[in-house]
Amino acid sequence: EVQLVESGGGLVQAGGSLRLSCVASGFTFDDYSVGWFRQAPGKEREGVLCTSKIDGSTYHADFVKGRFTISKDNAKNLVYLQMDSLKPEDTAVYYCQTLTYCSANRWEVSSDYWGQGTQVTVSS
Description:
By secondary structure, this protein is mostly beta strands. The protein has strands at residues 3-7, 10-13, 18-25, 33-39, 46-51, 58-60, 68-73, 78-83, 92-102, 107-109, 118-123.
């Protein structure tokens, strides 16, 4: 059974940091490009960061601006999202996902399945 379980969210003050984790079961992250997405209340889900399995290149949304970093631990089948300099507008539910395409001008998720996500709330 394919599962994605995100964790590490919480309440943090503006300027603070969080590290989100995502563990996969039923498949191996190493076989895919992977990324993080987020959905704020009343808004559509949007891409945050992804890393390509082809060459390890990372692509990010404009709002990231060097504040977030994605990494993988293939041995543990984990993906991390390190978030620094958090802003209130980063408040959202964050999800990890596998991608068929992760490039500068094309992101395409590889599955309709989404985990439960992890809530990040940034207070001002």
